Amino acid sequence: QVQPVESGGGLVQAGGSLRLSCTTSRRTFGSYAVGWFRQAPGRQRELVAFIGSGGTTWFADYAKGRFTISRDNAKNTVYLQMSSLKPEDTAVYYCAADEGTSTYWGQGTQVTVSS
């Protein structure tokens, strides 16, 4: 099963933290590039952060300094650690795993940040 499963979302107050997880049963998950996306109501889905198979990372400007992305290949899991959360971070967060020829999306996890 390649389709990743997200978890870790929830309701948090502004300034708080959450750690999202993206996991799959695929043993070769470590060779996949993985991106975290988010989609707020009425807005387009946007890339939040990315981690390559070799560990290269990228962050959207609004995520720099607040979010980190990491992977534990032994657990077939990619994490998005979010700190100093703001109400505007409220969205459904999705992870997408790319093996070069196909991209697999998870179902998403809701993150709600209250002011």
Give a description of the structure:
This protein has 115 residues and is an all-beta fold. The protein has no helices and 11 strands. The strands form 2 sheets. Strands 2, 4, 5, 6, 9, 10 and 11 form a 7-stranded mixed beta sheet that branches. It has a 4-stranded antiparallel beta sheet with strand order 1-3-8-7, with no helix packed on it.
Primary descriptors:
seven-stranded mixed β-sheet; 115 residues; four-stranded antiparallel β-sheet; mainly beta
What is the secondary structure topology, with strand pairs?
Elements: E1 5-7, E2 10-13, E3 18-23, E4 33-39, E5 46-51, E6 57-59, E7 67-72, E8 77-82, E9 91-98, E10 103-105, E11 109-114
Parallel strand pairs: 2-11
Antiparallel strand pairs: 1-3, 3-8, 4-5, 4-9, 5-6, 7-8, 9-10, 9-11
The tally of strands reads: 11
Element order: H for helix, E for strand: EEEEEEEEEEE
User: Which outline best applies?
Assistant: globular
Fraction of residues in helices?
under 10%
What structural class do you assign from the helix and strand content? mainly beta
Q: What does the radius of gyration come to?
A: 13 Å
